[in-house]
Design a protein that fits this description.
alpha/beta; six-stranded antiparallel sheet; 25% helix; elongated; seven-stranded mixed sheet
Length: 310
Amino acid sequence: MAKTKIIFAGTPELAATILAALLAEASFEIVCVLSQPDMPVGRKQIINPTPVKALALEHGIEVLQPTKISQVADQLRALEPDFLVVAAYAQLIPDDILALPKYEALNVHASLLPRYRGASVIQAPILNGDTETGISIIRMVAKLDAGPIFAQSRLAITDSDNTETLSIKLAELGGQTIVASIKDILAGTAKAQDQDHNEATYVKKLSKSDGLIDWTREATYLDRFIRAMSPWPSAWTWMNGRQLKILAIKEILELDTYKPGKVFVYNSQLAIQTGRGALLISRLQAEGKKAMTSQEFVNGYGEIIGAVLS
């Protein structure tokens, strides 16, 4: 029996986990992988393959990295795919390529659509205090994240989840859900349901400046903010003209003693006053330095005690 031919498009670690789930399915054949061009990262600007490219090469799969996917349309057409599967690819795909698959062009979207169309879809539910998120498998259409939904899988958000931990969970769930959805489509049992476009919300791509902490906000919000911004762009503030990252908190304190942003000691631990309540700090990182526990930080930067962060 012929295998189901799939073209996969994705770039980051989340997409690589989804690709791994497709690769593990014996009845599927990944005939080509698309990924964004390799980019220099880190202080040393080292060029590494994208996570999706690295995994594809391990399996001997052809990888294409066009700056615009239209540049490889003829190559993709020649593959005669049954499905196109897209997960965090970060390129808009034109209609002529969406029309290539025999069955469907599917997007693995990491939110419960129509809520959170757009870019920062994993950060948004943490920041907004949602109790759950999930995966949506949708038919790709010209409008952003607006296609009919084939399947959704739900996932609880815990009080300790940050964007990194939630991404890992969603990637695993996404892999399971896309495999099941393709099988259902092939079996003729999947039915796509139109989204309620009146319920749609949109979230933008985050920039470094979005991580700046507003200490006048209440502690419960800032707890979510710090978790949503971890690991990137990270939640950060100014101390003596230099950036200070707040990486994790230990707990929220019901204290309103100081000016918002004031750093103080509470039970021998580092705390920061907010507009309502205070945050007991677990880990932080000075600009250009390694991450430290609050105690390690105080040992090296004692001047933080009494400072007002901004």
